[in-house]
Design brief:
The chain has 171 residues and is an alpha+beta fold. It has 5 helices and 8 strands. It has a 6-stranded antiparallel β-sheet. A two-stranded antiparallel ribbon has the order 1-2. Helix 1 (2-16) crosses helix 2 (29-44).
C-alpha cells in the first residue's frame, strides 16, 4: 500500500533532519505519528484530509490526539505476542505505558517493515519525547532483547500495551 510506504518514508526522513513543517511544539512520539500519516495522506489522498484523521477523547474527529487518545480512538490492538509481531506491517505502532508519580506516560513507536523481509529487518522509528530530541530508529527485534526491560515489546513486560494498527487500515 502506497500510503504505508509514504508514512515510513516521512518518518525515516525525520531521523536525518526534522521537517520544518512539523511544528516544534508537536515533536514527540504521537506528533511523529500524526505528522507522518498526515504528510502521506497529503501526497496520495488529500481529499481524506477534508476531515481530521484522528478522534479525540470523545470519539469526535480531531486534528490533535495525544498518544493515549490515539490508541483509544484511532488505532486498534492487534496483539502482544510473537505471532502478531511477525505479522506487523509498515505503519503499525508499538505502544507502551510507563507509570510515573505524575501519572501514566504513553509512548508510541512506528513500525517500518521492508518489502524484502528476507534481507532487511523490521525497524521502529520514534521520537523519545524530550524537547529538542532527535528522532531515532532501531531494529525491532533488538528491542526485545537489548532494550531496558520496560521498553521491550514482549508479553512479559507489563508496560508493553501491544501492537496497534490505524483503524482505517483494518480491512
Amino acid at each position: 500500500m502506497l500510503l504505508r510506504r509514504l508514512v515510513a518514508r516521512v518518518a525515516l526522513a525525520q531521523v536525518r533532519k526534522q521537517d520544518a513543517a512539523w511544528h516544534p511544539d508537536q515533536r514527540d512520539c504521537a506528533g511523529l505519528i500524526r505528522f507522518a500519516f498526515r504528510s502521506a495522506y497529503k501526497q496520495v489522498a488529500p481529499d481524506r484530509l477534508s476531515t481530521p484523521l484522528w478522534r479525540d477523547g470523545r470519539g469526535h474527529p480531531s486534528d490533535f490526539a495525544d498518544a493515549e487518545v490515539l490508541l483509544q480512538h484511532s488505532f486498534q490492538l492487534l496483539g502482544r505476542d510473537d505471532a502478531t509481531q511477525e505479522s506487523l506491517r509498515t505503519g503499525d505502532v508499538l505502544a507502551f505505558r510507563q507509570e510515573q508519580d505524575a501519572g501514566p506516560i504513553f509512548h508510541l513507536m512506528l513500525v517500518v517493515r521492508p518489502e524484502d523481509r528476507a534481507h532487511a529487518p523490521a525497524r521502529v522509528v520514534y521520537h523519545p519525547g524530550e524537547k529538542g530530541a532527535a528522532v531515532r530508529t532501531g531494529v525491532l527485534h533488538h528491542l526485545a532483547t537489548e532494550a531496558p526491560l520496560e521498553w521491550r515489546p514482549v508479553p512479559q513486560n507489563a508496560s508493553f500495551l501491544g501492537f496497534f494498527r490505524f483503524k482505517e487500515w483494518m480491512s
